[in-house]
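Per your request, structure below.
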């Protein structure tokens, strides 16, 4: 089933061409039929109650927002009052928070129906989507393949048409990787513009809430709904309130974009490299000037991101390691134990962040954004994520390589938009990332939307 967009749903609700209640009943039917392991839990009674309340508002011409009455998937590391929040771990299968996360409260105030939890890689640690509650999350483009992670269920649910949109989190690529592998629009916005209160942390210094949708405009409008300042969250900066969709439709002629050359060669699937380069050439056909950018060796900085992130995650899950080790996947346990480093090491690693930020600002220089493949690989079959493969003459594993380009957006805090730009001969999607300066999401949406229209 192809879902209507958020805009289409809102317009049909307003015109009384579609009932929010009947739509929610159809969504409930789809959720019950989920075969991808995308949905962990949902509250049928609450969904229907909230849809009836929304329908009353539409009938009386007073909807709360353009997402009033629309079901939105919530990644299962985000607390939901009176609805199980498992963190992707069987030890928490029956854990029910007493309070909603701040962003859930924000979405509810806009009338969104948030009583649907999407599956996540355990503790949000995993790039492939294989190590989630009840096993792997399957890719709707081919259920034999994985979805990508860690916002695995959010991506699969939207790609399968179970939901029109979903919320994810991203600490090293966890929105962008599954968006790329499932053929969606995924936005990791500027670090700290959205409150993380009530969300299980991976690492406070990189964790970012974001959006997964089928269209650029939907993505921008949903991001707008998440922007609300939480003065009790020390991590959140005061966000400049921006209508992120306001530049969509503007011409990108005479725009200047940098292409990161290293990410198009070496350890990358040849079909992905060619497809992403074809998308870059389409940008040129739209009048965009392309600048070739070469970055220095980033291997040490990638290691700094990985280790500092895992060190924080280790500190978060010390009690889980002590009390629930039998419930933790070996792959997740290995990553957590890798983060068992000294406080001095952690601080030294965190301080290297400024090196990457300086490198990226130098690369941006005269350009508006940088572009590169979101993931160097497409999805692999479930169970093959840790198999040794050779790509571009480099021996690696899908597990190790899937996030080889996404981490720079997380460690630097820069906003990144992943858009689907093609499929391989096997029918597996891949994406192109547009990375911009902090708070330049509206411009990324403008460029991404124009490129997608050209590719279609």
């Amino acid at each position: 089933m192809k879902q209507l967009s958020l805009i289409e749903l809102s317009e049909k609700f307003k015109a009384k061409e579609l009932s929010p209640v009947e739509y929610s009943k159809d969504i409930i039917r789809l959720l019950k039929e989920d075969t991808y392991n995308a949905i962990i839990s949902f509250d049928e009674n609450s969904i229907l109650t909230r849809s009836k309340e929304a329908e009353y508002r539409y009938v009386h011409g007073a909807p709360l927002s353009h997402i009033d009455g629309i079901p939105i998937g919530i990644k299962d590391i985000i607390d939901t009052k009176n609805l199980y929040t498992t963190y992707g771990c069987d030890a928490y299968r029956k854990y029910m928070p007493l309070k909603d996360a701040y962003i859930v409260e924000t979405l509810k105030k806009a009338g969104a129906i948030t009583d649907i939890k999407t599956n996540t890689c355990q503790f949000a640690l995993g790039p492939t989507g294989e190590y989630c509650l009840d096993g792997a999350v399957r890719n709707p483009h081919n259920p034999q393949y994985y979805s990508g992670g860690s916002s695995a269920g959010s991506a699969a649910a939207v790609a399968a048409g179970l939901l029109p949109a979903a919320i994810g989190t991203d600490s090293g690529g966890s929105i962008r990787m599954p968006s790329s592998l499932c053929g969606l629009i995924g936005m990791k916005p500027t670090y700290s513009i959205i409150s993380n209160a009530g969300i299980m942390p991976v690492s406070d210094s990189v964790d970012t809430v974001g959006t997964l949708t089928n269209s650029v405009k939907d993505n921008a409008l949903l991001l707008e709904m998440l922007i609300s300042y939480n003065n009790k969250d020390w991590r959140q900066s005061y966000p400049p309130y921006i209508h992120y969709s306001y530049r969509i439709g503007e011409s990108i002629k005479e725009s200047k974009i940098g292409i990161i050359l290293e990410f198009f060669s070496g350890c990358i699937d040849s079909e992905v490299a060619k497809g992403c380069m074809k998308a870059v050439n389409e940008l040129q056909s739209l009048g965009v000037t392309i600048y070739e950018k070469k970055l220095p060796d980033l291997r040490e900085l990638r290691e700094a991101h990985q280790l500092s992130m895992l060190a924080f995650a280790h500190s978060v899950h010390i009690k889980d390691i002590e009390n629930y080790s039998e419930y933790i996947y070996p792959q997740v346990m290995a990553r957590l134990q890798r983060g068992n480093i000294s406080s001095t090491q952690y601080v030294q690693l965190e301080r290297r962040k400024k090196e990457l930020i300086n490198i990226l600002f130098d690369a941006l220089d005269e350009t508006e954004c940088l572009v590169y493949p979101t993931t160097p690989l497409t999805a692999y079959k479930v169970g093959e994520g840790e198999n040794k493969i050779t790509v571009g003459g480099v021996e690696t594993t899908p597990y190790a390589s899937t996030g080889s380009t996404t981490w720079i957006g997380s460690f630097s805090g820069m906003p990144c938009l992943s858009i689907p730009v093609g499929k391989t001969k096997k029918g597996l999607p891949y994406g192109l990332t547009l990375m911009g300066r902090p708070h330049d999401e509206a411009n990324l949406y403008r460029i991404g939307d124009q490129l997608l229209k050209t590719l279609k």
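The CA atoms of residues 117 and 282 lie 38 Å apart.

Regards,
D.
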